[in-house]
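Troubleshooting: if your tokenizer reports a length mismatch, compare your output against this known-good record of 326 residues.
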Amino acid sequence: MLLFLCMTILHKKSECCGAPVVRFGGKRRQCASCERTWSIRPAKRGPKPTRKQLGYLKKVFLEGFKVRQIARHSSLSIATLYKRFAKNLDSFVKCQRAIRVAGEDLIIIIDAEWQYFNKELWTLYFVTIRSAKKTTAIALDPILRYGKEGAAVWREIINNLPRSLKKRIVAMVADGIRGIGYIAEEHNWILQSCHFHLLNVLQKMRGKRATTHGREIREKIFQYVKASLTVKSNNQFMTLCNELQGMIKDKGCPKRMRWAVSGYLNRSVAFRNYLNYPKLNLPTTVNVMESISSLFRRRAITIKTPKAWYKWAIAYIRLKSRFNCK
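Known-good structure output:
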């Protein structure tokens, strides 16, 4: 204690004259002798760069590199490269994006991707728009929402679409989301249901083993549903539907398969609208959205927060906004 009292408190002196330093504003200081002033946190000189630095983002999102791999061939340290990558990502996500889709008749394709963060479910809603006369779909910025995918969120997203795009949409392609048919009716859109999701559900219940109970009837139901999706004759389609009505009553047909086929028969028109409106060239699946989700899913393995997940999704969509959709 005595030693502490004997110590003299030394204040910082100016570098120019060695005189005491006094405050001269918020972050400026002044020499008491020559009255020279300086900033303790000098700002970077010159205007802020207007051109976005996309080199690191393209290597990560388009070429599949990791930040650590880029650092091996750079003179910068891994920590510095991570900071620059994060800075470029933030500035790229914050900038405004102009959406331009040519064509009179547009088709909207929707799908969602979900993931758990700290045992909480978050969902990314993806939207792509394609002209009826072209095979290139343009992906819009995804929307992040807490909780399970639902028709209420899709209604909100569709209502907030740019008016220049929304007034030209004539059809929607979606998977088996409950309530999506009502949204299509509200906007007077043609709804095309996804074939892939229906066949994928039935595929899991076909029965791979020869000893599976009702394997023959399961296989027959799957083949009849698959044929009914592509047959062009309405008479043949009705014949297949009547056959399916009898097959699902068989004891060998599991309850889940019976429910799936019954739902398909009740909404069969939505699955065959690509035949009813051939001029629109409606895609029969949302596989373009599945390809977006799968590519992004591989990039987002190490992401730990929903905010970072959302930023990575926006950056990936903007860097690769055009997808082939036949």
